[in-house]
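In the present case, backbone shapes were mapped to integers, as reproduced here:
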Amino acid sequence: MNLYARVPGFVALLALLVVSPLSLVHAQAPAGGVRFIEPGQPPVVIHATVEDAQRAQEAGGGTLASTSNDLYYHGGIGGIGVETAPKVYLVLWGSQWNNNDPSGESAILQNFDNGVGGSSWLNSVTQYCQGVATGTYYCNGAGQAAGNQAGMFAGVWADNAGAAPTHPRQSQLAAEAVRAAQHFGNTTPASNASVQYVIATATRNSSSGFGKQYCAYHSSTSSSVGYVAYTNLPYITDAGASCGANFNGLGPNAGITIVGGHEMGETITDQFPNGGWLDSGGAENGDKCAWISSGQGAAADITLSTGTFPVQSLWSNAFNSGSGGCVLSYP
């Protein structure tokens, strides 16, 4: 099954990007969205830095560059476009984590993941679905809707017996996601059909490009246990303000859950990029609302049963009577 471009008119561009460095890709395309960053690997969907998102907003006359068009369904990968009953696993990859978590990112992520399922913030994902025609903009009850159930956090694995690569490549992150699937007993395609693995690397141990070309990204890989969806989540506070420290006055650790939530919502609605819900420019529900600092959809704190956490808004096709927009709650 082809994991590559499904956006009409986008195939030729992606063919060029597969041999292009990320810096060139980044300069030619809107902030955030689908990229090829490692030859021979499937596309990733990057979360832009604060600076790049703000440049894109300024270029759009004070609005996000890609808010003029809605998300639409791209046909799925092997019949899967969204996570209908999401499960999130957190992997703390490498012995570099041992007694070395200065910002407390592990606990913050676990508390957020434990409480976010069933929240009104994440509920906007349920308007998107799979099992409908390619090009669909509104499900209207058709197909199988993306899920937002309570208790979606399924477990954490401290894979700390050995060191992770100092600057892991996409292929190495993908291989760790497959190991995580095997560790958690998800050894069939069916058991990975609504699952995402968040591969968190320790402080000063991030992939190349972090904090300059992206804050995080999500992707998928084919394997003996089926397609596996994963997020590359570096140690967010290492990037400072570029990835959300004190964004909108939300505190020095704000970026941890802003970025983590961004990737979670995007993976639920586009599990195996780019077969799910994207706009015509390759942006997902998180990309279209990244780093908004004022007005409708500005990043803010939300309160869950497990605490209060900063989040960004997510794109809703249904907002404002179908005009679309960035929302912090749904419906």
User: Anything to note?
Assistant: The first strand starts at residue 33 and ends at 35. Helices lie at 11-17, 22-28, 50-59, 105-116, 170-183, 254-269, 319-322.
